[in-house]
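To fix ideas, we quote verbatim one protein's residues and fold tokens.
>
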Amino acid sequence: MFVVEAHSDKESSEFYVSLGKQLSALTSEESDLIANLANISAVLYDQIDRLNWLGFYLVKQDELVLGPFQGKVACVRIGHGKGVCGAAWATGETQRIDDVHAFPGHIACDSASNSELVVPIFHQGRVVAVLDIDSPESARFSEVDQAGIEGLLPMLERLAWDQVSM
């Protein structure tokens, strides 16, 4: 049985390295993409403090479509370049936004969200999904958080993305 290890300093790079090892172990013997994304979203939401939403949007044709997540009901479809998630997809770059209300074109799925971290996930050289993390706190995500989540990308990119009809 998989057990998530508690870590005393959830703001450190060591926390994210440990989390990455745990997630790799959790996903290593499961080949189903959706099952893995569901468990990854549950673990991350449970282990990262001060969040109100965390989940995946999958690229399907010309939209991001809601995938496994933790939190309140979410927007189901997001257009290319629209909002923070669409910007991460369009640019292929992480978006760390201290105040989402000041972000041009922000899509307010949950009015309680004040800051956001969105990391694009690549497969065969193109963005196939984004990991979206929201917090009710302004400026919640630090450079350490960004680097830590980006450090999970090799594990995320090894998942079976070809299961999604893009």
Notes: The longest helix spans residues 13-27. The two ends are 33 Å apart (CA to CA).
